[in-house]
Write a structure and sequence with these properties.
Beta-Lactamase; Alpha-Beta Plaits; TIM Barrel; 3 domains; nine-stranded mixed β-sheet; binds ligand C2E; binds calcium ion; Biofilm_reg_signaling; EAL_dom; EAL domain-containing protein; PAS
Length: about 600
């Protein structure tokens, strides 16, 4: 007893202090002084490593702990000596550790595993633990004493976690990437909780290409970044968003109680995406189209969808949302599969249609608003498919995708120029012919020649031809655009900016490019009567045109009221059903003969500087 008191007095070091207590116990348990000294030395060594070192009972109660363990785990050593090691590992690790302790106590085999220890309330440390049965201790089972030593690998685990996260992360937006989506789908398929729904929504930004083309890729990237952020905010978790590339995002909605819950989320997403973006001093508005697919209503009977099945369903639904006018969501329905086949058939038949002469041009008069006299016509392509007409809004994008637009566009140019010459020959002098040019066609290296040849072969004066090009096509590569336009303008060709107001023109380019006209998009004209906002835009385009010496042409004029308002605002020319639809050449001629249409004689372009 006295010797214990003496030792305690000497023991500054906690290990010593421990051993003093232990000596008392060990001598009682029959350990020799030599053994005790060796053990004390070993324990001091453990202390010196700075690693974790605990001696526990088989059930986990801590009998001895180094000061460095206390330091590492951020608990007072006295606390450690009062608890079980199971109390200081993370809850989810407890069972595994308890089992390993027991196994080791039973058979004495060394066990190694990684555990997360909880330190205080929030922090935790990962420790690679080695569990051994105490040397010279052949008391098996619950009486065995175990030595738990361990190295702190928290930094390593954290690095590893970050690496894994990075490999699942889209570097631009911080959302997940395709690999991440794949992982989430696999996890859901493996889990498939009955009664719970999983939905995958594929979203695509309407008109993103336009932003990218007109404002440049940096702004495009900034927009994507902001969209990523808004999505993560709207879903209140970044774990649900992944970007597949380009402007395609995937939302993974898990644990839904009903379909309407998913729909509420999508409505929120559509709303947040519609709010204006501020990019480099410009205010940009964009909308999004979303396709939604569900699974999980009967997960036990339904075979889980593969990643590509999920994407295909969501993609079909998204396609439908776009077809219905964009800025909306659409739910997958099996009938979309048939529609896709239909699309495919149409696209295939397009090649034949070119050979069979199923494509035609109709001509829509562009008139002076005061007199209604025809100043020009716009050539609009028609496809008379044997099973019914197919609208240009359907087949033009297809032709742009499959490359046929180069042929169709070149054909339209030749055909329109030849029509002008043919009317001339019949004494019908239409002053100008407007021809639409697709961005794909415009950027094609053979474009200049195709224009030159069409005009030359028809034998018409080039300054009667107006090429209609959209803002985004003009803005894609401004330097190349400028030189191409300048070269064509030198021949006499004129240019009109089509659908003006829907793209993102830089006003300085409007001045720099040799343009002759702005065609105000018909959406503004149709909104003009009800929306002061649209009215303001129309009147701003009028003054802009005047300032820049451009002819302002309003598209889609359907009513007298629109016509009057446009006229009052100083619109130069108008086009729309109020005056005439796009007509086949024969009908156009008949209308002139019947006097329902009259030709004007003033050359609109010679009036101004255009
Ligand atoms: P766009 O160039 O904006 O052509 C005007 C569209 O508005 C035409 O549709 C025309 O029929 C329609 N429209 C004219 N007046 C009115 C009106 O009062 N109300 C309404 N609601 N619509 C009116 P369409 O013919 O269906 O052509 C659609 C688009 O397809 C065209 O839009 C153009 O972008 C493209 N397109 C047509 N023909 C060609 C072509 O030969 N080449 C190229 N690249 N694109 C073409
Ligand atoms: Ca047009
Ligand atoms: Ca247009």
């Amino acid at each position: 007893m006295t010797s214990i008191t003496f030792d305690v007095a000497l023991a500054h070091d906690p290990v010593d202090r421990d051993f003093v207590a232990l000596d008392a116990l060990s001598s009682a348990s029959g350990q020799s002084a030599d053994e005790r000294a060796a053990e004390r030395e070993g324990w001091a060594l453990l202390e010196a490593t700075g690693d974790l070192a605990l001696q526990t009972e088989a059930a986990g109660r801590i009998r001895r702990a180094t000061e460095s363990s206390a330091h590492l785990l951020d608990y007072p050593r006295e606390y450690l000596l009062r608890v079980s090691v199971l109390d200081i590992v993370a809850a989810e690790e407890r069972q595994r550790l308890a089992w390993l302790l027991q196994r080791c106590a039973q058979d004495g085999t060394v066990r190694r595993d990684r555990f997360r220890f909880v330190c205080g309330i929030r922090s935790s440390r990962w420790i690679d633990l080695r569990i051994t049965r105490r040397v010279n201790d052949d008391r098996a089972d619950e009486h065995a004493e175990l030595l738990l030593t361990g190295h702190d690998v928290t930094d390593w685990v954290e690095n590893e976690r970050q690496l894994v996260e990075l490999s699942y992360q889209d570097p631009l937006t911080g959302a997940g990437n395709r690999a991440y989506m794949r992982k989430r789908i696999a996890e859901f398929s493996a889990r498939g909780t009955p009664g719970q729904l999983f939905a995958l929504a594929l979203m695509d930004l309407d008109g993103f290409k336009k932003v990218n083309d007109s404002l440049g890729h940096e702004f495009g990237d900034a927009l994507l970044k902001e969209i990523g952020k808004r999505l993560q905010d709207a879903l209140r978790s970044r774990n649900m968003v992944a970007r597949l590339g380009g402007d395609e995002f995937v939302l993974m909605l898990e644990g839904l109680d009903s379909e309407s819950e998913a729909i509420r989320i999508l409505e929120r997403v559509i709303h947040v995406c519609r709010q204006p973006f501020h990019l480099g001093g410009c205010q940009v508005r964009i909308t999004t189209s979303i396709g939604l697919a569900f699974a999980g209503t009967t997960p036990l009977t339904e075979t889980p969808l593969t990643e590509s099945q999920w994407l295909r369903r969501a993609d079909l639904a998204m396609y439908e949302a776009k077809a219905l006018g964009k800025n909306r969501y659409c739910l997958y329905s099996p009938e979309y599969e048939h529609r896709l086949d239909e699309q495919f058939r149409i696209e295939q038949s397009m090649f034949e249609a070119v050979q069979n002469g199923e494509f035609l041009l109709h001509y829509q008069p562009i008139v002076w608003p005061e007199t209604g006299e025809v100043c020009a016509t716009e050539a609009l392509m028609r496809w008379e498919h044997p099973q019914g007409a197919i609208a240009p809004d359907v087949f033009i994008p297809m032709a742009e995708n499959n490359g046929l637009i180069k042929h169709l566009g070149a054909w339209a140019l030749r055909c329109a120029c030849a029509q002008l010459a043919s009317w001339d020959a019949q004494g019908i002098h239409v002053q100008h012919m407007s021809v639409n040019v697709s961005p794909v066609q415009f950027r094609h290296p053979g474009f200049l020649d195709s224009v030159r040849n069409a005009i030359h072969d028809a034998g018409i004066v080039p300054d009667r031809v107006v090429l209609e090009i959209t803002e985004s096509a003009l803005m894609t590569d401004p330097a190349a655009t400028e030189s191409l336009l300048t070269e064509l303008r030198a021949l006499g060709i004129r240019f009109a900016v089509d659908d003006f107001g829907t793209g993102y023109s830089s006003l300085s380019y409007l001045r720099r490019f040799p343009l002759s006209a702005l065609k105000i998009d018909r959406s503004f004209v149709s909104d003009m009567m009800d929306s002061p906002h649209a009215r303001t835009i129309v009147s701003a385009v009028m003054s802009l045109s005047r300032e820049l010496g451009l002819v302002a042409i309003a598209e889609g004029v359907e009513s007298d009221a629109q016509a009057h308002l446009l006229s009052a605002q100083g619109c130069t020319l108008v086009q729309g059903w109020r005056y005439a639809h796009a007509l086949p050449p024969g009908e156009f001629e008949r209308a002139l003969r019947a006097g329902t249409l009259r030709l004007g004689h003033t050359d609109v372009f010679s009036q101004g500087q255009a």
